[in-house]
Amino acid sequence: MKISVIVTLKKDVLDPQGKVVHQALKGMGFNTVKEIRQGKYFEIDIDESDKKKAEEKAQDMCKKLLANLVIEDYRIIGS
Amino acid sequence: MNSSVIIFPGSNCDRDMDVALKKFGFKNKMLWHNDTELPKSDLVVLPGGFSYGDYLRCGSMASKSRIIDSVIKFAKSGGLLLGICNGFQILTETELLPGALLRNKYSKFICQNVFVKINNSDNKYFKNIKKNVLELHIAHNEGNFFCSNDQMKEINDNNQIAINYCNQNGEINDIFNPNGAIKNIAGLLNKQKNILGMMPHPERMIDSYLSGEDGSIFFENLMGNLK
Fold first, then answer.
1. Annotated active-site residue in B13, B85, B147, B166
2. Beta strand pairing status for A72-78 and B110-118?
């Protein structure tokens, strides 16, 4: 089963990478872009057939390694 | 005095640290990240570098390495644990120190000398230190210390800020903050004050051939406090 996870910086955490990407886009003429926040995307191929169990494991992975909860939020976006 | 330096794949200040520790009288051992046992140590050092290529987040992989359980056990029983630069990042990732080190505010890798002022000298690292402001070297991309408001309150309540970025006169101000760190924090202690994480590299300032010798003051003082 494949599970996808998105990790993003919390709202109040500065994202210099996102800012630089935003500036680059503006320089390219994308003037209507208001803000860019950069995050991480994980595709987890897990040997589980039970969706609930697989999602629980993904959650555990997020808490223990994939996200740093001091600065990041995570979302399991599908399986 | 016995010290141990942990080498992770991608560490690159481990040998500098080895040279510095030996110069100031430590019997130092180098340990590989896949080892599980710590030899008897008065000081354990997590050196600077780019452990595991900085993959995922700086220090995150190292914080799950095989040796880390022994390091955590050592620190939790009161052993002196020093993390420099990437070592500081590893200490926050293991949650031995609060907060996190974010990407530098101005999106640049910073490599320069800075001044830091000692804020708390009631610990083995800075007690009796003969200078209150040290000139040290920083080289990092993620040194922007960040923490939640609750963590900041705890840090203040327990006087955990070890050193702040400042100018040569010890003035702490935004304009002397190289990376955007909250409150100009350059180094942090745990509540018990046996764990120190700092972005500056004292091991790079131990010889007149290098750009300064204030790192010598740090190591000499630490050795003096351990004797």
1. B85
2. unpaired
Our CA-based measurement puts residue B152 at a distance from the nearest CA of chain A, in whole angstroms, of 12
User: In the predicted model, is pLDDT for residue B23 greater than 90?
Assistant: yes
pLDDT on residue B149: 95
What is the pLDDT, as a whole number, of residue B101? 98
Contact between B118 and B210 under an 8 Å Cβ cutoff? The reply is no
Whole domain around residue B62: which residue ranges? 2-226
Burial A1-24 (b: 16+ CB within 10 A, else e): eebebbbbbeeebbbbebbeebee
Number of domains present in the structure of chain A = 1
- Predicted local distance difference test score (pLDDT) of residue A79: 67
Range of the domain at A7: 2-78
d(Cα B88, Cα B214) in Å, to the nearest integer? Answer: 20
Report the residue of A15, A61, A68, A73 to disrupt the B interface, i.e. the one with the largest count of B CBs within 10 Å: A68
User: What CATH number did the domain enclosing B120 receive?
Assistant: 3.40.50.880
Query: Which residue matches tokens 């005095």?
Result: B1
3-class secondary structure, A60:
helix
